[in-house]
Structures
1.
Amino acid sequence: MLNKKKGLLFLIVSLLFAFVLVGCADDTGGNADDSNDSNVDTTDEVESEDNDTSSGDINVGIVLPTRDEPRWVQDEQRFKDALADSEYTTEILFSQGSSANELQNVETLISRGIDVLIISPHDGDAAGAAAQAAANEGVTVIAYDRLITNTDAVDYYVTFDSFAVGAAQGNYLIEHANGTNIPLYLYAGAASDNNAFLFFEGAWSVLQPKIADGTFVVANSSEAEALADKPELTRDEMGRILGQVTTNWDPNEAINKAQTHLTAAGDDLKGEVLILAPNDGTSRSIADTFATDSDITSYVITGQDAEKASIQYIIDGKQSMTVFKDVRQLVKDAMGMAITLLDGATPDTTGSYDNGSKEVPAMQSEVIVVDQANVQSVLIDSGYYEASEFTGLD
Ligand code: GAL
């Protein structure tokens, strides 16, 4: 209350002072308009335009991979919600699936004076150049959700437990399978994204014994079949499997792959099937493709990200599960780290990730499996989504 009164008084005094100044300037023929331009207060600014040209210093720059996937639009919104009352200035830019755009975004943010960069790379290796550009200017680099690989220029990593994401997907398939010789279709994310390997590694850790003992039969990857006896795969071995079953995180590529696999599959690989889909966008398109094949009698399919469209698919029985990653927590961790750094202190971390060049100190969050049984309690009752955003919830 007291502060508000003081603030009002200060405002009145400032206005009077400005009025007198303008009056003086007019009297002397000077240009009063120039006087305040360099002191534009950008406090609380949250920009999301790709080509922002406004002036003023920014404390924290945020670079996200693409607006084309709802996952990252979700992150943008959660950043905006979290920053609504912040005293720090931030700007959010999207790289639209291009490492060149990403580098340009980082350079733009550096020129606007950022001290901390929060970045989720389009391509983990290629983003090393952007991280290096930031580090050269003394900017602290926080990798967000996706690790930047093979560079020393990344300082911290905030992430979910990505191995656990894949293990949860694999376990869900195991728990919802009946019998033996069940066809298993494997799909994966983009090989340029370190997470795609972690998700696959987690899934393989639980699926491999079931493949080795004949409970499951891999339907669409000769490389995975050849490695069926290996509980742990090298990155190179996983790379070979990904080479056959990657979606590149692209729903259209996922449809094309699924169509090709279904066309090639004989009757023994149809009927009741299991599908490891790496995230929600690809899960919906693979599910739609399998649903149109009359020889597929039922399928269990995984997902990830709790995208709204997939929550509706789960309610409707078209997608079996998703792995919910509470983006509110990730944003809180990333901004908490940034603010600690701006205050000149060292942020807390809970472990580290080897990025091929160094051990990157990391802060990791847990994930939650969501299906029809708990969608209401986990996503609606917790306030993450509104019930009114869906149909068929009771
Ligand atoms: C991953 C991310 C996932 C998913 C995917 C596609 O790196 O962890 O949540 O969205 O990219 O963008």
2.
Amino acid sequence: MIQPQMPETKNWRFHRDVEQLGWLTIDTPGPVNTLSREAIAELELLVERFEQLARSNELAGIILLSGKDSGFIAGADISEFDAMSDFSVLPDALRRTHALLARIEQLTIPVVAGIHGFCLGGGLELALACHYRVAVNDDKTRIGFPEVGLGIFPGFGGTGRSIRQVGPVDAMQIMLTGKMLRAGAARGLNLVDKLVRHRDMLRWEARKAVLQKRRSSEAPFHKRAMAMGPLRGYVANKMREQARKKARQEHYPAPFALIDLFERHGDDWQAMIAGEVDAFVPLMGSSAATNLRRVFFASEGLKKQGTKGVRFARVHVIGAGVMGGDIAAWCALRGMSVTLQDLDMERIKPALDRAKKLFRKRLKKKHEVDAAVMRLEADATGKGVGRADVIIEAVVEKLEVKQAIFGGLEDQLKPGAILATNTSSIELERIAEKLKQPERLIGLHFFNPVAQLPLVEVIRSSFNTDAEIGKGAAFALAIGKSPVVVKSAPGFLVNRVLMPYMLGAVERVERGESPELLDAAAVAFGMPMGPIELMDTVGLDVGKSVATELGHAVPEGSRFDRLVKDGKLGRKTGEGFYKWVDGKAQKGETPAHADLAGLGRELVKPLVDMTEVVVAEGVVANEQLADIGVIMGTGFAPFLGGPLKARQDGRV
Ligand code: T1G
């Protein structure tokens, strides 16, 4: 079969078959496909050739597929953004890409995209410029616009084409949330036109779509009407209200810039695209976007810590309290077979009930929920110990209790099994010293609520070797958590840096300052929640014991001390520094303050100071790990890039 003369390309492969169908395969260097400047420049050359072949009837259609098992396209190449965010190059680069996607759309022959795995950002924008989209309906398919998580929004025409395809309200929702949709949801919204059960069927279905000259339908009128006339302003304001509940404009300008663009042009998809460049470029160079890119690569870096090729199937958790029960539930949710041990069924049952709620909330489909329930087994006798790949102890914070538990099960362990404690404050060496093989015990420190917080501190004692720590990190990754390796030292990373910040605020309350004001100031700075509300959420008893463990004694007779003595422990007892109703702190008026963010900086300073100390002491290996660990463990302002990056930039 004679192949047409095609330009040399490194990122694309092309061949034409006997039916004159053109098979265009993207296969860029690296583990995932990304649209780098080189890939886009090569596509320009290819499209020019396609236009010629179409004109001379030597090409009946084009099918765009990925040559990688990992997925379709993960978007534009983020590693090029720092160099791209310069006003002198970016506007032209974006306009060139706009013109390229418009040429694909205007090709006179059908162009069909076959999607498997992730189809994100610029990858989805390229797919939306095609005339028809077929996707694999399996658990790996994820379709969406994650750009808002990078401090930007879609810049390759996705703002206009998604509105044309799914309607303004749904499209804006997808872009403002950054949510990655499963295949079924994407089909339901008309983002994709056809689903196939298996990747093997993708080529065949895409071929049929080309031969039948199928074209995707645009969003129906009733959906498009939501952006027409005065309704658009109303819808835009509703979106701003929603966005403000999640983020402050001064911290995360991107969603608000996108809503402004929508308010200006939301009823005209081509005007949206034309308006994209001027709204997009300032965001790309913003400190928020620069820092969020740093956070992206730092969190990517965490994925490299785990030992490759280690498989985990069975987990045994000892202690069915809040932490133990929720760790067991999370592991079962992530596909592990879990046995949960405690003294009797009465102590285990509440954890199983909470787990079922989590499964229903996260899994939705009945058969998936039932399967997860089956994976989580009550085990009051500990028969699961001998079969487990990972044993996690999460009982009361008492040294002698932990030593007794580990001493009792050491001989039952299967070779290579991970032995871990979820202690939040006791040095590992003291727990391990009585073991025959103290090097086997590591720390896997989860954060409450386990299902929400991505961080797991993998605690390294002086007995451990890289092998145990590598396996611990691999396990955290296997259950969808982000591991940060931390040396066994009082408070490890997160508690160590949080405590001076929380106690600093408590001391100000003791001196009569308004907890409402202090909390509002910390949030104005960029913390997800204020220090006083956080103390009440963690529990004043836990706060007091961690503070004491870290050498910050709580003054006898202080308000903090009296609250604990009176059993007013915060949210879990309905009263602490605040009164709590239905899990919500009942806050009074926030007194006016001339410089709320300035007060916020003051409050956060002890946290940043302690992060510097923790790095200097080698508790974590470097500043980047400290920053990503504190962001993931405390929610510290990701738009600032972490406490040390914020100090480096003079923000605190
Ligand atoms: N650019 C550059 N590198 C990327 C990348 C990207 N978009 N996506 C992934 N990588 C690298 C990653 O750093 C890692 O590298 C390797 O690929 C494997 O990834 C105009 C401007 C796709 C769900 O935000 O969410 O398009 O560490 O280990 O767990 O509108 O990566 O091996 O050296 O994460 O299977 C929008 C970001 C870009 C998606 C795969 N796209 N990526 O997860 O593999 S902005 C995103 C992800 C945009 C346009 C705008 C995930 C993934 P290394 P991995 P994974």
